[in-house]
Amino acid sequence: MPEFDNSPYVVVSSDCHAGLPTEEYRPYIEAKYHPAFDDFLAEQAARVEAATKLGVRNPEFARAWFEEHEEGLRGGWDSAQRDKELDADGVTAEVIFPDADAVESTTAAPFGVGLTFSGGLDQELALVGARAHNRWLAELCSHSPERRRGVALVPITGDVDAAVAEIRRAKESGLGAVMIPAMWEDKAPYHDRRYDPVWAVCEELRMPVATHSGVAPRDEYGDHLGIYVSEVTWWPARPIWFLIWSGVFERFPGLKFGVTEAGCWWAPNLLWFMDRLFLGAHAAAKLTPFEEVKRPPSEYFDRNCFIGASNTKRRELAHRYEIGIDNMLWGNDFPHPEGTWPNTRKWLRTTFHDIPVDETRRMIGLAAAETYGFDVAKLAPVAERVNLRPGDLGQSGGEAAGWAAAREVGRHWLTGHDFPVIGYGATLGGHRTDDVGPEVS
Amino acid sequence: MPEFDNSPYVVVSSDCHAGLPTEEYRPYIEAKYHPAFDDFLAEQAARVEAATKLGVRNPEFARAWFEEHEEGLRGGWDSAQRDKELDADGVTAEVIFPDADAVESTTAAPFGVGLTFSGGLDQELALVGARAHNRWLAELCSHSPERRRGVALVPITGDVDAAVAEIRRAKESGLGAVMIPAMWEDKAPYHDRRYDPVWAVCEELRMPVATHSGVAPRDEYGDHLGIYVSEVTWWPARPIWFLIWSGVFERFPGLKFGVTEAGCWWAPNLLWFMDRLFLGAHAAAKLTPFEEVKRPPSEYFDRNCFIGASNTKRRELAHRYEIGIDNMLWGNDFPHPEGTWPNTRKWLRTTFHDIPVDETRRMIGLAAAETYGFDVAKLAPVAERVNLRPGDLGQSGGEAAGWAAAREVGRHWLTGHDFPVIGYGATLGGHRTDDVGPEVS
């Protein structure tokens, strides 16, 4: 076995969540909006009931979850507890989205600006709620600031000048990224030039812009949970092709846009499909050129986009040479039950055991550190303390050989190859996974 | 080289188009709707202008297309010319959707019920237009009936009783399938029980139900063609997960639903994602069971769904063991320029040259023949005359070996394997495609 770099991983979770118990946001809300806030609080029971009816919430599971994790879940808003949980879980740093409690919504950001953030909200109240959360979040991030990157909520579908002002204010307060509504609903789609001032300020301030999954057109789904889950990843990803094809990344080459907790399994097909369209597929022979787009969409994707891929699946990792290793930002989704907390060390071993160490370093940390502007030197002592090493994932430095063919083929439609190639020469020997089951497939 | 079955292929195109020059539909429309029909005809210029503005239509391409193919394009409505074109192109039989002219829309079915068929149309006029097209189409199919399967247009988003009656009438007139609006827009989504009488009659009469790509929420796209093309395949496929998760295929186990000309590259991820959800992913631990769904979604997909995959791409063929060979129905899209006509023989060779013959027989013909109820014995003499054989595709009977690993892995999440496997052991030797270019990738 060759010697290899077994130094600790800098693990950056690109998908964590924090939020106050909702009623505690009151001091962060201007007094004249307190009556509206009372109304919002009063609707909490109805929101939980609706979630239960759709099947997103299961009362028995909820009881067990809170009982088992009572202490850890206080890390949703308590910085000391949060550091303790991250350390134990193997995580060096984190990007913080809203809504700590995804089970009972007891920490929903005011006026619906958390994971239900959408253009369909009352846009005036949305800005009030966003400011309240953003102010509190800046306080949270002032503890252990080197390991936290707070994501400001900004309702850009409303007043654009106010949105730009809030982005500047958020940046000054110490926040480092911007979450926009995943759906514009009846507001202007994101190709609209009205948003150019938003993209401009985010480019100027190096604030990555992100959506997060959660919102979807639930009115169309009845109570069929499967429909919701089947397309809840599509809606927050949708802005990617709106921004690429409308030339936003030509006009704002430094802008970064990402979609969070929506998987990354769809990215290879998306890139293949868009590149082929741009490069002149037979089917496009009757189409006019794409004037606002100067290069293959995958080039914008690599330069301007990223995926907060959360708990990456084996199937997704197998496609990483098409997705782009630096585009896949792992996350533990702390403290949500869909995520890997508090078992991240075990999950990372299960999914990354045969992935080359240098690629693992990018996907579970360094790519996110660059995207979100962490100071890796300052993270080094935290990583030492957290102490998660390649050897802990079962890696030994010889992982690259089995993936050589897949790496060489890469994006086959750009490298002249015939079809995608998956690692290990796609031989069957020894790569059955009877011991892990469908949850990692 | 072993001996192999070099008998002619029965090639069934699951995606062809026919339609009268629009004004010639007048005799098929009840007189009281003639004024409305005059209005529809008057809007034709505006429709072409809108298509040009979006970039779907390119005037120079259009001129060249009509000049070069003047005679063949008459096959859009002339049965003798049509047979001549199919024979020359290598096609034994065909499934016929509306709108022969996808370039200038000169054969648009009345009142928007062609490839712009949607729940957003005036539903009364939609039924009038559908009946007009259906009556004419039955006449077309009365010529060479053994090789034609006409698809009746039925606006099920309007009056359900009227829709059921039209389906029965269409069946009696000789049509063999039903096309429904790809988008319901402001009407009821397809999980709604109001549609049960439609599913029931289609099951009873063995009429497969299909959508066809074309409709999308263009109001959201501005003039950005890339956005339209990037998601125009998603909208017509959307009913698949609405029907599966709402238990339609439990209630109507004999119902067949398919999506046409929307590619099939998305199917592996969809099946993987839905099966994992059903089978109890970690992420679903907080979710209630799916009461209306009794088996993994891929089982319904295999039993009840199909994809009219049109001009299958190499990337799609490489994933056929995940998609399901009998779920991929090839088509030449005659007489649309996105399709392979009049070069289908060459295209089939380019894309299928290394695919096992028995699998090719299913994908380019027999699976469609079963789905759409063709009498294969009656097609045999046509296939003899058309005379397209495995040898003509460059096949020699030894193709299976290189795909053995991929076939064994199949749907890896159900077979206990780790990640997908692509054919040829995914070795690189000899499988570069420098000579074919991106149009087949």
Structural account:
2 copies of one chain form a homodimer. An 8-stranded parallel sheet of chain A has the order 1-2-3-4-5-6-7-8. Chain A has 441 residues and is an alpha/beta fold. In chain A, helix 6 packs parallel to helix 7 and helix 7 packs parallel to helix 8. Chain A is built from 20 helices and 8 strands. Chain A has one domain: TIM Barrel (Alpha-Beta Barrel), CATH 3.20.20.140. In chain A, strand 2, helix 6 and strand 3 form a beta-alpha-beta unit. Chains A and B meet through helix 3, helix 9, helix 10, helix 12 and helix 14 of A and helix 3, helix 9, helix 10, helix 12 and helix 14 of B.
CATH superfamily of chain A: Metal-dependent hydrolases
Fraction of helical residues of chain A: 40-55%
- Number of spatially distinct domains of chain A: 1
Mean pLDDT of chain A: 93
- Described by its quaternary structure, the protein is homodimer
Radius of gyration of chain A: 22 Å
Q: What's the CATH class label of chain A? A: Alpha Beta
Main sheet overview of chain A: 8 strands, parallel
Distance between the termini of chain A: 28 Å
How many helical elements of chain A? Answer: 20
Q: Beta-sheet strand percentage of chain A? A: 5-15%
Question: Per CATH, which architecture of chain A?
Answer: Alpha-Beta Barrel
